[in-house]
Design brief:
Length: about 270
């Protein structure tokens, strides 16, 4: 275990996952939903995780951030910098989530709190984690809104989620994840239910985050075309297993697995060659 930690420090690894297994207790018995997953992520790079619904993509990252359902449990190692997120105590893990690790959930339409205005929702995470007052938090919110290419004016700050478009809500979700200047952002299906133009704009924001802010990104998607636009490396998952992995360009141009070839046939026409 000490060797794993040393390796992270020497190679600037942000996330190092080794033999990760996720299980759920069900009335029918134990369901093994993620099987011996191994991968890593460096700062300033994006790992794309692609596969159909039920392939284990989201549960992999729920497991390392403590977001599994009550009937789930996890085995293996998941080092974030030099801390094993699997074996650390709940308080330590919660301290990372929202601060050093941002998580963008799948549906921006329902992930925002409907009765709080946007300014309050952006501010509350910085108030909690950074222990700053609301005025400073709102000032930070305005800076972050500029990063996600939203007008940093009082109209949006004072708006409620139902007054914003789907694309604006997704930008707000990204902004919330940036409020504490995280090292890692995990985005679960961040382009679902968005039109193709808005999808492209959101992916451009993710590219800016990794290239200009040195943030490590995990982009989870069922759409390999979305992964192609952003990720440096890719994992292809099916039935809880990683079927293929490697540099995105190599995997997409010379796929070895038949399932990867099938996913490539689904790339939409707006993705470039």
């Amino acid at each position: 275990m000490q060797l794993t930690q040393k390796n992270i420090k020497n190679n600037n690894l942000l996330l190092n996952i080794h033999n990760l297994n996720v299980f759920f207790k069900t009335p029918e018995g134990i369901s093994h939903v993620v099987k011996d997953a191994n991968f890593n992520l460096k700062k300033g790079t994006c790992l794309g995780v692609v596969g159909e619904s039920g392939s284990g993509k989201t549960q992999t990252f729920f497991s390392i951030t403590g977001l599994l359902a009550n009937n789930g449990y996890v085995e293996g190692e998941a080092f974030f910098k030099d801390t094993n997120l699997i074996t650390c105590d709940d308080e330590t893990r919660r301290g990372f989530l929202g601060k050093s690790i941002g998580f963008i959930f799948q549906d921006p339409m329902t992930s925002l709190t409907p009765h709080l205005n946007i300014g309050d929702q952006l501010a509350e995470i910085a108030i909690y984690h950074k222990k700053i007052n609301k005025n400073k938090a709102l000032k930070k919110a305005i800076e972050v809104m500029d990063i996600v290419k939203l007008p940093s004016n009082r109209d949006i700050i004072n708006s409620y989620p139902h007054e914003l478009s789907g694309g604006m809500k997704q930008r707000i979700m990204i902004a919330i994840s940036l409020m504490c200047e995280p090292d890692l952002i995990i985005a679960d299906e961040p382009t679902t239910a968005l039109d193709v133009t808005t999808q492209a704009e959101i992916l451009n924001i993710f590219n800016d985050l990794k290239n200009n802010f040195n943030i490590g990104l995990v982009l989870i998607s069922h759409n390999i075309g979305v992964i192609a636009e952003t990720s440096n490396e890719v994992l292809v998952m099916k039935d809880g297993q990683i079927l293929e992995s490697g540099e995105t360009a190599k995997v997409l141009t010379k796929p070895k697995n038949e399932y990867t070839k099938h996913l490539l046939s689904c790339i939409p026409p707006w993705i470039g060659n």
